[in-house]
Design a protein that fits this description.
The structure holds 2 protein chains of 2 kinds.
Chain A lengths: L3 H17 L4 E4 L3 H13 L7 E4 L2 H11 L3 E4 L2 E2 L2 E2 L3 H8 L7 E6 L4 H9 L4 E4 L2 E2 H16 L3 H14 L3 H12 L6 H13 L3 H14 L4 H13 L3 H14 L4 H13 L3 H12 L6 H20 L3 H15 L3 H13 L3 H8 L10 H14 L3 H13 L5 H13 L3 H14 L4 H6 L8
Chain B lengths: L28 E8 L4 E4 L5 E6 L2 E7 L8 E9 L7 E14 L4 E9 L3 H26 L3
Antiparallel strand pairs in B: 1-2, 1-5, 3-4, 4-7, 5-6, 6-7
Classes of the chains: A alpha/beta, B alpha+beta.
Chain lengths: 446, 147
Amino acid sequence: MISAGENTADVAALAFRAYVKDRRIVIADASSVSRANLAQTLVNLGAKSANLALSSSYADAEAEIARTKPQIVVCDYDLGNQRGLDLLQRQRTCNEGSKDTLFVLVTGNSSQTAVARAAEEDVDTYILKPFTAAVLRASLIRAALAKSIPNEYARTIDEGKKLLAANQFDDALKAFERAISLDQAPALACFYFGQTQLMKQATEVAEDSYNKGLTYNRIHYKCMVGLFDLFMSQKRHIDAYETVKRISQYFPANPARLNSVLKLAIMTQSYDDVEKYYQMFTKLDERNDEIIKHVCAALVVCGKYYLQKNFKSRAIELFNKAAVTAGGRVKILQEIIFALVEHKLGKDAQVFIQRFPPETHETSTYLALELLIADQLVENVGVVLQKARALVSQGIHDPIISEILIRRSVEAGFQDTAENEARAAAQRYPDQKNFFERLPRSKPKA
Amino acid sequence: MAKNKPPAPEFVPIPIEALIQPKDFKSFETLITMKNTTTAGELRKQGAIQIVEFLERGMVLEAPTRFCQKSHYLVLTFETDIPGQYEKYKFNTGARVESAEPTGDGRDTVTVSLIQTDNSEWDRFQSLFGNRQAEIEGFLRAAKGGE
């Protein structure tokens, strides 16, 4: 005798069989054993072997997706040096307009950062390796049926989204209101209700609606992002900062968002936060290149702030942290040197120029910065001029070199040289033409 | 029937320290040691052997080709490093190779059945992954909220 539970499972399995039987599928996994195992499971669930394409690398999977336009992609989170998750956009592009495509991650990566990124990208399901056949089957079936046979709540939201896309705001609102009444925790319907209110410029109602969604579900990604975007558009930086911190807490390590956290920390003058953030960052074993750049940039901005407030040692401490973290990144070191020279701290700048990697020592950027520091530290105008001319005669050009050459020529009474160099610089750097044309006639720096 | 408006969510300010948790960046890592008691060979290298699937009383492993063959007896040791937990979880078991099929790229699909296994330890080992799977599904459901 079939029990009620078994009956439901059988019905779901049959529905999945109907869903999968004519669909094209790409399985991307570096492990041949996993590929074979997943393929066999899908065939057992009703997929046709002829519709399956197996890829062992990201590039291969990308080519297969372009060629076969699969409705179903099953892939590992990590595919060599690339993220299998990035194949999702490829699949969406190939199947534009299709609503029942399926993107499934089957991976040994159990980290919260990977899971959160998958949630942000709206993957259909995430299956952890090693799995049991029952978990794999149930997860695939659940994800597919949610797409192919949506419940009334999902259907009503979809209807509202269509109305929203057609700018029929009032009808869309009615649909989303109806959806809200159809679910115990209708955070998604609240989000779309808020989005529609936002389109109608009803920002207060939109904010209420996102907040309402979050009362049902504190980690609802779209509601949190909706709220954050709203606060940013209203320049409510303190609220935006709290919201982006909340998002980052649940959805960690998204470089773009961490950048927002750091930017908002600075905009809200929460400079201590930047330092704390740096402390946490140093504890990480793996540091993503983008996060390194953002952290360094934030430390430099904080350092500049402390320089303005005349807290020199604090600023130098932050610059040191940025320089160490930057690991020879020229732009970060350049920013630090500019800030120090601007505050007449040429001797400190000398310490930082030593951090430039040896292979950069012949570049115009490095040589220009060296001259910039010398310009501040060397009292003899003739010596500075000689250095600047030597660089130009070697064909090394940089706006800094031109500026110093012009300014120092004027100071030494070589007005013609200054005028000639100003004309050359104005031609070489057209975006700074006005600056260079005026420079020979401007007052010497104190 | 109109629902009552829920109260506004009460959020406590998030300390910046909460934003980067080193454990969030870490995945489960399992070091698998395979001793082949039939051939006296031993394999112990991170990543050399992978568990692909749990079976009811066994598992499907991916291993270097020809390390074991059908009917060989193995001793398997699993040491799983779980993010945020100080101690590694260890599980040892005997196993018999039911099949070892080459996949053509220097790897074999090895299906083993467990022998001389402490059932509660086996259940506990599987539940490490099963519990994390349940957490992941719960998180996805909440984050997406019915999309």
